[in-house]
Amino acid sequence: MQPNPQETLSTQPELSPKNNQAKSKSPLKLAMGRFLKNKMAVISVIFLVVIVLVCLLAPLFTNQDPVETDLFQIEKSPSEEHILGTNGTGQDNFARLLYGGRISLLVGFSAMFFTLTIGILLGSLAGYYGGKVDSIIMRAADIMLMLPFLVLTLTIIAILDNITIPIFVTIIAVTSWPNLTRIIRGTYLSLREQEFILGARAIGARDFRIILRHFIPNAIGPIIVNATLMMASYIIIESALSFIGFGIPQPTPTWGNMLSEAMNVRILRDHPEAWIPPGIAIFVTVLAINFIGDGLRDAFDPKSKQR
Amino acid sequence: MYKYIIRRILVFIPMLFALTIIVFGLAKAAPGDALTGQQLADPKVNPEVYEQQREALGLNDPIPVQYWNWLSSAAQGDFGKSLVFNGRSVAELIESRVANTLYLGLFSLFITIIVAIPIGIYSARKPYSLLDYAATGFGFLGLAIPNFFFGLIAIYFLAINLGWFPAQGTLSGPGVEGFAAFVDRIHHMVLPGITLGLAGTATYMRYMRSEVLDVLGSDYIRTAKAKGMSDQNVLYKHTLRNALIPIITLMGFEIGVLLSGAVITEQVFQYPGLGTLFISSVTNRDFPVVMAITLILGILILIGNLLADIFYSIIDPRIRYD
């Protein structure tokens, strides 16, 4: 959209491109520049965009319904109509692969977003206020980390019994905030003593403003890097839990749900086309996200590249 | 140092209590209690009889009293009775499985170490060599592939198509004994062991590489080389000793990851360990078993962290404790 020239002129003339070039580049821009030079990471971004688009535009690639069952077409081998055959309840595997990607990516993304919200909130409270607030939050984090993540999640899922996508996402976020909270708190602790924070306090900025305008932007590197890597691990967690039957309930297609079909020896042995594609889909998606995460880490923290 | 170890153990105790409170809280949040199983199995009995038994067993007591009773019996290894397995005791069920999980965990850790550490060292000594690139590539793959998918692929190719390894279980049959049984057990553990160890191998390899690189770049290594010390000696006497410290700590903290991985891996290979027991108990809502396993795994993780800390303080005398 072209901005109305008059409006731009009248509101913020100092932001015209000419003046902007005179300014030094912001750290975020520098990081982006470094990121774009990382071939693997850029290829991964393109690749991931393609995966997301294919899943979102699933109806363009298949006219089969991912949940409709056809009892006359059970465990069929690939044919023109069913490119990857059908599963144990006669659902089209290819359609499930595409539509399942939507759910798997959605769960990964929203769980990441939710964990990020909790992590930033608690990490900010602990890192900014310190003292009692800090020790309460950090002890709670220690306790959460005592239990193996999967065991805790499974126990909660068993107790709740009725799992939907929002509940599932909530369970993941509620059980996995401690790591991120620790990282954010750690970053804050090193920022807290710096002069510009003191300066902001001295001119009477309120706590909320200081956190929003000074702490979060300065901690954005670790936050973005960890959010990316978290999303990759959540996609694996969703698939693992769905695989053992405690994830998103059938018949909703997810990559993990498709893989759980392979628990049936007959499908495992005779229909590799039914379970290998979703496995590969998880694998390449996670691989791409991990490459992006690594690229971001190198971009935000050039020193880490030496390792 | 001893002061530090004692203080570390003293921190361990409240953590343990916190753990028991969480597990107890989860158990209370779960539907049903110790008698629900019997009640479901025998619905003809007058519900009042169960009410009386509940009263007698103290299930109607105030929560703190119940917690204390539960804690004191759990401390003696009494976790009550399974709701599903015909009222077998939870302790008995766990006892029948725990050794298998332990073998599998140790076996996979063994594979991880003998693969990851030498390759990590090699990668660091010859960075950007062919093997280094291969190892880096493997590191990315190993962390991106879900271990259950790797397990399925291993079963499909190595067990079903090639028939090299058994696809499930721990023993071929009841007739195998003595040394043959030991070999058979190992043979059954190869695929699950590799599957479980895959992510760990990738992690340790990366760590080892970066640690050795770090140490090799330090001044005291240059000094040692300047003295005319042989490469072998520099490697074994100076480099490894320092590079292994973070690895050992990592191992202590990775116990939780290993145990979580074991739950999934055992399920893929239908390996009769704590993981499969845990999943079947979660499926059947057999909460006494679920809680007992949760508690045991939590304690194992706590002990792992404690040992890592203590070991760290012994192996690295540079660390000073205030």
What this model shows, in words?
The complex is a heterodimer of chains A (about 300) and B (about 325). Chain A is about 75% helix and about 0% strand. With about 300 residues, chain A is mainly α. Chain A has one domain (about 25-55, about 85-305): MetI-like fold (Orthogonal Bundle). The longest helix of chain A is centred in the middle third of the chain and has 37 residues, at about 95-130. Chain A is elongated and about 75 Å long. The two termini of chain A are about 45 Å apart. The relative contact order of chain A is 0.14. Mean pLDDT of chain A is about 80; it is low at about 1-15. Chain B is an all-alpha fold. Chain B has two domains: about 20-75, no CATH class; about 100-315, MetI-like fold (Orthogonal Bundle), CATH 1.10.3720. Chain B starts with a helix and ends in a 7-residue tail after the last helix. The mean pLDDT of chain B is about 80. The chains are: A mainly alpha (about 300), B mainly alpha (about 325). Chain B: Pfam families: BPD_transp_1 (PF00528), BPD_transp_1_N (PF19300). Chain B: One of its GO terms (biological process) is transmembrane transport. Chain B: It is found in: Cell membrane.
What's the SSE pattern of chain A? HHHHHHHHHHHHHHH
Radius of gyration of chain A, CA atoms, in whole angstroms: 24 Å
Largest interface (CB within 8 Å) is between:
A-B, 41 and 46 residues
- What's the structural domain tally of chain A? 1
Query: What number is the mean pLDDT of chain B?
Result: 81
User: What is the oligomeric state here?
Assistant: heterodimer
Order of helices and strands of chain B: HHHHHHHHHHHHH
Report the structural category of chain A.
Answer: mainly alpha
Task: Tell me the number of structural domains of chain B.
Answer: 2
Task: Present the secondary structure layout.
The complex is a heterodimer of chains A (307) and B (322).
Chain A: H1 5-11, H2 17-22, H3 27-37, H4 39-56, H5 58-61, H6 93-129, H7 131-146, H8 149-160, H9 165-192, H10 195-202, H11 207-218, H12 220-243, H13 255-260, H14 265-270, H15 272-300
Chain B: H1 2-29, H2 36-41, H3 47-57, H4 63-75, H5 90-125, H6 130-144, H7 147-161, H8 178-216, H9 219-226, H10 231-253, H11 255-269, H12 274-283, H13 287-315
